[in-house]
C-alpha cells in the first residue's frame, strides 16, 4: 500500500470518527481531595446553642461536593489531590472552629455535584450562587462578593458599534444579565475564563465578562498586562455562599454563625492572599518537619538540581553561568525555609534532566510539567504555577509555504488530541525552545506548542517582528512542579511543605517580576550578559556608531586631503583603525597607537587582529570580555574597499560595577544579619522582662506592703514596662527598614480609642503638675476601619513626648473633624505644649531613626518614636506636621482619613451575676526559661489554680502520661522540643485538650502559626494576672452527672484550691481501697482493716449511707453486700473524678456545717 493511500485512509478514519456516531464517554470517577486551608483561626466571638453543638457531635463528618474544571481562585487542585483556594480557606475555618472533619469529593461537572447534594451523597457545596437558590437549595449568607467585571484590551482598536465579539465566563452564574448590555454582540464560547482572557490578550475577542475576583487572579497569574479590568455594578447577585439541601436548615444556621464571627481582617487576608501580593520572603508561619525529614535534611545538606538552560523566564543564565529567574527565587525561598543548599546542574534538554534524576546523578528537577513527571514515574510536589499551552506561529509579514509540522519540546508530555488543527500536522520534537522557535521562523515548521510564560518572554525579547501567539489551546494548562526520583520521597515531602509555606500571592508576584525585569539572552551567543554590562557596552557601541557615521562622511568628502584626514582621526578619543579587505593596517589614529604602544608607520601592512592579540585584547579567536569591538565595510576610494573599526575598553568600568555590586550584596547581607540579630535579641530581652513584670505584679497585689515598698515596686514595674516598649520600638524600626511593618485594620470605635490614651496621659501630666486640656469634637463617634494598636501607639508617642519634655505650663490636646463626609472620618489631632521648643535644624533630622533633639533636660528618649509615628501615619495615608520654635513650645498636627464602618446593633449586656464562676484548673506550664516558668506558676496559684512546670516538650509529655491536665500553656520557642512540635505530639492522643501558646514575639503571624499548629489560642508575654484570669474564665463549665449518694465537703475547705487537694487525696484513698478489696476477695483475706480505713475517708465526706454499709461489713462480711458496696464506691469515685477534672464549679458544691 503506497504512503499516499495510507494517508488518505487515515484522514477518512479521522473524519468518520469526528462526524459519525460516537459511543458515550465513560463516566469520570469521583476523586477524593485533601483540604489545604491557609486560614485556621479560632473565632472568639463564635457562640452556638447547646442544640447546635449536639447536632455537630452527631454530624461531625461532612462531605463537600466539588467539580471539574476548577474555578480559580475559588477552588483549585494544587496537587493531584489537593483542594485549595478561597472556599478551602473558609472550609478550614469551619472545620477548625466546629471540630468537624470535612471530606472533599470532586465530581465530573457542576451538574453531577449538585445531583450528589440533592441525592444525599454530599452534605454541602462550598461555591454556590442565586442559581442554586432558584433550584430549591438552601444558601448561607455570602462569604465573598460576586462582583461582575468587564475586561478589554488596552491596545485594542476602538470597539465596533456592531459585531462586538463577547465572551462570558462559563462558570459565571448569571450570564443572561449581561447579554442585554450588548444585544448586537457575537457571543464566543470558551471552556474556561483562562482561555477567554488569553484570547482577549491576542485580539481574538473584544470584551470579556466574569467574576472580578477570579478575573483579577487569572490576569495576575498569566501576566496579561495589556488587559484592563473594570468592575460592573450588578445588584442581581448577592455573592457566593454555601449550599445545602432544604432539610438541612440547622447546618446552614451553624455556618451563618461562623461566617458572622469571622473578623474583617481575616476576610481581607483571605481575599488579599488570592489576589496578588508580595515577594516570597521567609514566612513567619511555622514549618514543621517530621523526625525522618529532619534527619534527611541533616544527612543531605546539598541538593543537586537539574535546570533547563533554555527556558526563560523560568531559568536564565548570565555571563558568569549563574542561574536567575523564577526557579531561582523559588529555590531561594525553599532554602530559607529548610536550610537546604541547592547546587545547580544546567542541562540542555528535558530528556537529559529526567535521565539524570532517575539515574541518581541529580536529586531533583526544579521546574517540570506534571504530566511529564508522571510519564517518567517521578515523585512530584504540589503545582507552583499553572500556565496555558499556546500555539506560536510566524508573523504575517513572513510569508513562507506551509509544512504541516508542529514543534514540541522533547520530553513535554502534552495531550493534543483535542485540537483538530494539530491532528493534521506532524509533531516534531525539538531539543530546546530556541531550536523549535527558530524552526518556525525559518519555515521548517508552521507552529510550536509551548507554555504561555515562555512564549511571551521569547517573542517580546527576541522574535517581536517574526513570531506571534496565534491562540491558546483549550486543554488543561501546564502545571509546573518540582520532581524527584521515587527513592528520594523524603525530599518530595520537604519541598512540598516548603512550597505550601510560600503564600500564593508571593508566587504570583515572583512570576510577574521575571516577566517584566529579566533580560533575554542573545541568540547568537551562548551566554547572557548582565543588564548593567549590556547598558554600558551598548552605550559605547552607540557612541562608536555615531563616530563611525561622521567618519565615513568625512573620509568620502575628499580622499586627497590626507593631513586633514589624519587630524580628524587623531581627534577621535577611542582607538580607531582602517584596513584593506584582508585586514592589513593602512591607517590608524593616535589613540590606537597609544593603546597598543606602537608606531603606526612601522606596523602598517600588518594584520590588525594579530596586533590586538599580541597586546592582550584577544582571547583565542574572540575579543576579551569587557572590550566593545566594532568593524564595518568602508569605501576607501572610487575603486577600492576596506574596513574601518575600533574598540572601547570597558574592563575598568565593569570592574567598578562589579565592586559596586559586591558592596551592595555586602550591605544587604549586613542588613539581613542586623534584622536576624534584632529579632533574636527581642525574644531574649522580652522573656526576662516579662518575668520581671509578672513577679512585680504579684508583689504589688500583696496587701501587707508598706507604702515605701509599694512605691519602689511601682517604679520598678513602670521601668520594666518602659524597657519593654523600647524593645518594641527597636523591632518596629527593623521592620520598617525591611518593609515588613504591616497594618492590621479592623472595626474599632474611634472615640474610646482616643479617650483611653488621653486619660492615661492626663494622669502622667498631673504627676508633673502640668495643666492638661482636652477637647474632643462631639461628632467624633462611631466605628471606623483602623489598626487600633498602631493608632494608640501614635497618640501615646506624641502625647508622651509632650509630657516628657514639658517642665512647666500646659498641654492642649484637640481632636476635631476637618470636613463632613459620609464614607470617611477626616480626623485632625493637634497636640500643643509649652516645652522648650525645637529649632529648624533639629526638626529636619528628628524624623530619622535614633535622632534626638539637642535639649539639656535630663530626660532623653531613644530617638525612635517620631520616626515610627511618621512611618505609621504615611502607611495610613495620613499627614504629620511639626511646628516649633525655641522657647515657644511645639505643636504637632496629625491628619487621618479613616473609612467609616456600617453601624452594628448594640450587643445585649449580660449581668455580672450571670457570668459563670471560675473553676479551679490543673494547668501544665512548659517553658525553658526557669524564671518565666516560675512566675507563671505563681500567678496561676494566686488565681486559685493548680499548676506544675516542665522545662521542655519532652518533659511535658512525660508529665502528661502520668496525669492529664485541663490546660497546657507552652512557650513556642524551646530547645529539645518546641511548642509547635509538642502540640503536634499532644494532638495525636488528646485532640480535645486545651493548649495555649505563649510567646514574646507579639506579631499576628506568630498567632496564626500557633493556630495552624493546632493550638487553641496564643498569649503574648508579658502575661498579666488580668490576661490570665480573662482567658481562663472563657473555658467551658459543664454540669457533672448527678450522684445518688449524698456527700459534702468537710468544713474549712473554703477555696477551690483547697477542695481540689482534698479531692485528690480522697481519690487516691479510694483507688487503694478498691484494689485491696479486689485482691482480698480473690484470696479470701480479712478485709476489716481495709474497710476501717475506708470508713475514715467516708466520714470526712459525710457519706452516711456508705458509712453504715461499711460498718455492717466490718461486723459481718457478706460477699453479695460487699460486691454491692464496691460498686457504690466506684460510682462515688467516678463522680469525684469528674469534679476534680474541672467540669463543675467547686464553689457551688455543699460544705458540711
TrEMBL record:
Where is it mostly found? membrane
Signal peptide (from-to) = 1-22
- Under the GO molecular function aspect, what terms does this record hold? histidine phosphotransfer kinase activity; phosphorelay sensor kinase activity
Recorded hits in CDD domains, A to Z, give: HATPase_EvgS-ArcB-TorS-like, HisKA, PBP2_BvgS_D1, REC_hyHK_CKI1_RcsC-like
Can you name a GO cellular component term? plasma membrane
Presence of the UniProt keyword Signal in the record = yes
Positions carrying 4-aspartylphosphate: 971
Q: What is its EC number?
A: 2.7.13.3
Q: What is the reaction catalyzed? A: ATP + protein L-histidine = ADP + protein N-phospho-L-histidine
Q: Which UniProt keywords apply?
A: ATP-binding, Cell inner membrane, Cell membrane, Kinase, Membrane, Nucleotide-binding, Phosphoprotein, Signal, Transferase, Transmembrane, Transmembrane helix, Two-component regulatory system
**Domain Response regulatory span(s) in chain numbering:** 922-1036
Q: What membrane topology was assigned to this protein in its record?
A: Multi-pass membrane protein
**Does the keyword section mention Oxidoreductase?**
no
Where does the Histidine kinase domain start and stop, copy by copy? 680-900
Location in the cell reads: Cell inner membrane
Q: By what name is this protein known?
A: histidine kinase
Species this protein is from: Mixta tenebrionis
Amino acid at each position: 500500500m503506497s504512503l499516499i493511500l495510507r494517508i488518505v485512509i487515515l484522514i477518512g478514519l479521522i473524519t468518520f470518527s469526528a462526524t459519525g456516531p460516537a459511543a458515550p464517554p465513560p463516566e469520570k470517577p469521583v476523586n477524593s481531595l485533601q483540604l489545604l486551608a491557609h486560614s485556621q483561626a479560632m473565632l472568639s466571638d463564635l457562640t452556638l446553642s447547646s442544640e447546635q453543638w449536639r447536632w455537630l457531635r452527631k454530624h461531625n463528618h461532612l462531605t463537600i461536593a466539588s467539580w471539574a474544571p476548577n474555578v480559580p481562585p475559588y477552588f483549585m487542585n494544587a496537587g493531584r489531590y489537593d483542594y485549595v483556594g478561597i472556599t478551602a480557606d473558609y472550609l478550614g475555618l469551619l472545620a477548625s472552629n466546629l471540630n468537624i472533619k470535612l471530606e472533599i469529593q470532586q465530581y465530573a461537572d457542576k451538574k453531577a455535584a449538585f445531583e450528589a447534594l440533592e441525592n444525599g451523597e454530599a452534605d454541602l457545596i462550598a461555591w454556590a450562587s442565586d442559581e442554586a437558590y432558584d433550584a430549591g437549595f438552601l444558601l448561607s449568607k455570602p462569604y465573598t462578593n460576586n462582583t461582575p467585571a468587564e475586561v478589554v484590551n488596552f491596545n485594542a482598536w476602538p470597539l465596533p458599534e456592531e459585531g462586538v465579539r463577547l465572551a462570558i465566563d462559563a462558570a459565571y452564574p448569571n450570564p443572561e444579565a449581561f447579554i442585554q448590555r450588548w444585544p448586537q454582540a457575537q457571543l464566543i464560547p470558551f471552556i474556561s475564563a483562562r482561555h477567554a482572557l488569553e484570547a482577549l490578550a491576542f485580539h481574538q475577542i473584544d470584551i470579556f465578562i466574569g467574576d472580578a475576583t477570579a478575573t483579577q487572579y487569572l490576569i495576575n497569574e498569566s501576566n496579561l498586562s495589556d488587559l484592563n479590568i473594570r468592575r460592573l455594578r450588578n445588584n442581581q447577585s448577592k455573592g457566593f455562599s454555601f449550599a445545602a439541601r432544604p432539610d438541612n436548615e440547622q447546618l446552614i444556621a451553624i455556618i451563618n454563625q461562623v461566617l458572622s464571627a469571622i473578623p474583617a481582617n481575616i476576610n481581607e487576608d483571605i481575599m488579599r492572599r488570592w489576589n496578588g501580593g508580595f515577594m516570597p520572603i521567609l514566612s513567619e508561619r511555622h514549618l514543621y518537619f517530621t523526625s525522618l525529614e529532619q534527619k534527611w535534611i541533616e544527612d543531605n545538606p546539598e541538593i543537586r538540581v537539574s535546570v533547563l538552560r533554555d527556558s526563560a523566564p523560568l531559568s536564565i543564565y548570565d555571563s558568569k553561568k549563574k542561574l536567575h529567574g523564577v526557579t531561582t527565587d523559588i529555590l531561594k525561598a525553599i532554602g530559607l525555609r529548610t536550610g537546604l543548599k541547592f547546587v545547580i546542574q544546567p542541562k540542555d534538554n528535558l530528556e537529559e534532566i529526567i535521565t539524570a534524576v532517575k539515574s541518581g546523578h541529580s536529586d531533583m528537577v526544579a521546574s517540570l510539567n506534571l504530566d511529564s513527571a508522571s510519564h517518567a514515574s517521578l515523585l512530584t510536589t504540589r503545582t507552583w504555577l499553572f500556565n496555558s499551552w499556546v500555539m506560536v506561529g510566524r508573523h504575517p509579514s513572513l510569508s513562507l509555504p506551509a509544512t504541516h509540522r508542529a514543534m514540541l519540546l522533547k520530553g513535554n508530555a502534552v495531550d493534543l488530541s483535542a485540537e483538530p488543527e494539530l491532528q493534521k500536522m506532524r509533531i516534531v520534537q525539538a531539543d530546546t525552545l530556541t531550536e523549535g522557535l527558530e524552526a518556525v521562523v525559518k519555515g521548517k515548521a508552521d507552529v510550536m506548542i509551548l507554555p504561555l510564560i515562555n512564549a511571551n518572554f521569547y517573542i517580546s525579547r527576541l522574535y517581536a517582528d517574526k513570531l506571534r501567539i496565534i491562540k491558546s489551546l483549550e486543554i488543561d494548562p501546564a502545571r509546573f512542579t518540582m520532581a524527584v526520583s521515587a527513592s528520594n520521597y523524603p525530599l518530595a515531602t520537604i519541598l512540598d511543605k516548603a512550597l505550601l509555606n510560600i503564600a500564593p500571592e508571593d508566587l504570583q508576584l515572583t512570576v510577574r517580576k521575571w516577566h517584566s525585569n529579566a533580560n533575554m539572552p542573545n541568540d547568537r551567543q551562548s551566554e547572557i550578559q548582565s543588564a548593567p554590562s549590556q547598558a554600558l557596552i551598548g552605550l559605547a557601541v552607540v557612541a562608536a556608531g555615531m563616530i563611525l557615521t561622521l567618519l565615513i562622511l568625512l573620509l568620502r568628502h575628499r580622499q586627497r586631503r590626507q593631513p586633514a584626514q589624519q587630524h580628524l582621526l587623531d581627534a577621535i578619543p577611542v582607538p580607531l583603525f582602517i584596513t584593506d579587505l584582508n585586514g592589513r593596517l593602512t591607517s590608524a589614529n593616535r589613540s590606537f597607537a597609544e593603546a597598543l604602544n606602537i608606531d603606526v608607520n612601522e606596523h602598517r601592512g600588518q594584520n590588525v587582529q594579530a596586533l590586538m592579540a599580541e597586546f592582550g585584547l584577544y582571547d583565542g579567536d574572540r575579543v576579551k570580555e569587557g572590550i566593545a569591538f566594532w568593524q564595518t565595510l568602508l569605501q576607501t576610494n572610487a575603486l577600492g574597499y576596506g574596513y574601518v573599526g575600533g574598540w572601547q575598553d570597558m574592563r575598568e568600568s565593569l570592574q567598578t560595577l562589579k565592586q559596586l555590586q559586591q558592596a551592595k550584596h555586602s550591605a544587604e547581607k549586613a542588613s539581613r544579619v542586623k534584622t536576624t540579630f534584632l529579632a533574636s535579641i527581642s525574644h531574649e530581652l522580652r522573656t526576662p522582662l516579662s518575668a520581671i513584670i509578672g513577679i512585680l505584679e504579684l508583689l504589688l497585689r500583696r496587701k501587707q506592703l508598706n507604702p515605701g515598698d509599694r512605691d519602689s515596686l511601682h517604679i520598678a514595674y513602670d521601668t520594666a514596662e518602659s524597657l519593654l516598649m523600647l524593645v518594641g520600638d527597636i523591632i518596629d524600626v527593623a521592620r520598617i527598614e525591611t518593609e515588613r511593618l504591616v497594618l492590621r485594620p479592623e472595626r474599632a470605635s474611634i472615640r474610646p480609642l482616643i479617650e483611653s490614651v488621653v486619660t492615661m496621659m492626663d494622669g502622667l501630666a498631673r504627676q508633673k503638675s502640668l495643666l492638661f486640656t482636652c477637647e474632643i469634637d462631639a461628632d467624633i463617634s462611631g466605628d471606623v476601619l483602623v489598626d487600633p494598636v498602631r493608632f494608640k501607639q501614635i497618640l501615646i508617642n506624641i502625647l508622651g513626648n509632650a509630657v516628657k519634655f514639658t517642665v512647666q505650663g500646659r498641654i492642649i490636646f484637640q481632636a476635631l473633624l476637618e470636613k463632613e463626609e459620609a464614607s470617611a472620618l477626616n480626623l485632625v489631632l493637634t497636640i500643643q505644649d509649652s516645652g522648650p521648643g525645637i529649632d529648624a535644624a533639629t526638626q529636619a533630622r528628628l524624623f530619622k531613626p535614633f535622632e534626638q533633639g539637642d535639649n539639656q533636660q535630663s530626660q532623653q528618649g531613644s530617638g525612635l518614636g517620631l520616626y515610627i509615628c511618621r512611618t505609621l501615619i504615611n502607611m495610613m495615608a495620613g499627614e504629620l506636621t511639626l511646628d516649633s520654635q525655641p522657647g515657644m513650645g511645639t505643636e504637632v498636627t496629625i491628619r487621618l482619613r479613616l473609612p467609616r464602618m456600617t453601624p452594628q446593633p448594640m450587643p445585649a449586656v449580660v449581668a455580672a451575676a450571670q457570668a459563670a464562676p471560675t473553676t479551679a484548673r490543673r494547668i501544665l506550664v512548659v517553658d525553658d526559661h526557669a524564671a518565666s516558668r516560675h512566675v507563671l506558676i505563681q500567678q496561676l496559684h494566686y488565681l486559685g489554680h493548680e499548676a506544675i512546670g516542665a522545662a521542655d516538650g519532652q518533659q511535658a509529655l512525660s508529665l502528661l502520661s502520668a496525669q492529664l491536665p485541663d490546660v497546657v500553656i507552652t512557650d513556642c520557642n524551646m530547645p529539645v522540643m518546641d511548642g509547635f512540635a509538642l502540640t503536634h505530639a499532644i494532638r495525636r492522643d488528646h485532640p480535645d485538650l486545651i493548649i495555649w501558646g505563649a510567646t514574646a514575639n507579639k506579631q499576628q503571624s506568630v498567632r496564626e502559626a500557633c493556630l495552624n499548629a493546632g493550638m487553641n489560642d496564643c498569649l503574648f508575654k508579658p502575661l498579666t494576672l488580668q490576661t490570665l484570669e480573662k482567658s481562663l474564665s472563657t473555658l467551658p463549665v459543664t454540669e457533672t452527672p448527678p450522684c445518688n449518694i449524698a456527700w459534702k465537703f468537710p468544713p474549712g475547705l473554703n477555696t477551690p484550691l483547697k477542695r481540689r487537694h482534698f479531692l485528690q487525696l480522697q481519690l487516691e484513698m479510694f483507688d487503694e481501697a478498691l484494689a485491696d478489696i479486689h485482691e482480698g476477695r480473690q484470696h479470701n483475706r480479712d478485709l476489716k482493716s481495709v474497710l476501717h480505713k475506708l470508713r475514715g475517708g467516708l466520714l470526712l465526706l459525710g457519706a452516711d449511707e456508705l458509712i453504715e454499709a461499711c460498718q455492717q461489713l466490718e461486723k459481718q462480711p457478706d460477699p453479695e453486700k460487699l460486691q454491692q458496696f464496691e460498686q457504690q464506691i466506684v460510682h462515688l469515685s467516678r463522680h469525684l473524678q469528674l469534679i476534680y477534672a474541672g467540669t463543675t464549679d467547686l464553689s457551688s458544691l455543699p460544705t458540711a456545717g
